[in-house]
Amino acid sequence: MIISQNLQRYNSNCRSSVKVLQPDVSFQALYVAEHTARTAVETRASMQRHISLHDQTVREKNIRDAAAEALRDRHPTARKDDLEV
Q1: Backbone angles phi, psi at 79, to 5 degrees
Q2: CB 75 within 8 A of CB 83
Q3: How many domains does the chain have?
Q4: Which end of the chain is less packed: N or C, by CB atoms within 10 Å?
Q5: Between helices 2-13 and 23-74, what is the axis angle to 10°?
Q6: What is the pLDDT of residue 85?
Q7: Distance between CA 13 and CA 11 in Å, rounded?
Q8: Cα angle for residues 30, 37, 52 (degrees, 5° grid)
């Protein structure tokens, strides 16, 4: 309410022909813009977490496969069940 009164005083003292948005409209637009930005940031962070978790899972699988292959190369006569890591 105080901001609205200050804007009215400013508008009455202003000698230029620049139109000032109504306070409710400009604050609503700012709220919507901020909400949209926050949603975009949260979505981006969620996707980055998902991608990094997927990458970590893939790296761990590759390491496990490489370890199992190294064990098979080291002990070619061993059974496959014995070499599972």
Answers
A1: -75, 155
A2: yes
A3: 1
A4: N
A5: 120
A6: 53
A7: 5
A8: 170
DSSP structure class, residue 17: -
3-class secondary structure, 5: helix
Cα distance between residue 66 and residue 63, in whole Å: 5
pLDDT digits (tens, 9 = 90+) for 34-70: 999 999 999 999 999 999 999 999 999 999 999 999 9
Lowest pLDDT segment from 1-5, 15-19, 46-50, 54-58: 15-19
The answer to the question of residue 3 being in a domain is no
Residues belonging to the chain: 85
CA distance 29 to 22: 11
